[in-house]
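User: My collaborator sent over this chain with a note saying "see what the structure looks like." That's all I know about it. Can you take a look?
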Amino acid sequence: MARATQPVSINGVEFDALIEENRSLEADAPSYPVETGFMVSDSIILQPMTLDMILILTNTPVTWKDRHSASPTRVADVTKQLEELYFSKTPVTVMTSEATYRNMAILSIELTKTVEMGTSREIPISFQEIRVTESRTVTIPDSYGKSGETGYNAGTANTKISDTPVSVNAVTENNNGSILYNLSNSSGLLNNEKPSVNEVLGAFIGG
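Assistant: Without extra context I'll predict from the sequence alone. Here is the result:
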């Protein structure tokens, strides 16, 4: 491992040493067969990156002594800051000597005391990347809201049923293909000037 050029920090909170770092990249790929020519990349879903670290924190730093002097409360102060970052649920920036990871959520922190470590702490901590997207407003062309070749509004359809009654006599007189006309014709009532409905039905039933 290359020599560190700066201490690991989480939102500016610095640590004595990085013991282990594990960065995971995962994706979900389709498990079903795909046709030839199909854009497989459209079905591969990239999962957020995860970052696992084991950090060392001491009251008497032996590394980065020019940045951190010995203090009996340093471990307690830094662990308190870590807890505040965790409970605030605010994305953090993690900086190492090799990379900077932004928009990282703290998934877990282990704050364990051991006899072997004394007042120092070996702190495993896990992060997950939060992907940030931008919304965009798109102007829809005016023609998409129009109809026909002229581009005028389509308007609304009138679905009201007419309340105007239809005259039976008018139907008899004007529609030679109507039922009353056929009944009148078959019963011989067309000789009358304006046969009524009762006359037509009576002649048909009686006949």
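A starting point for your reply to your collaborator: Strands lie at 9-10, 13-14, 17-24, 27-28, 45-46, 50-57, 92-95, 100-109, 121-129.
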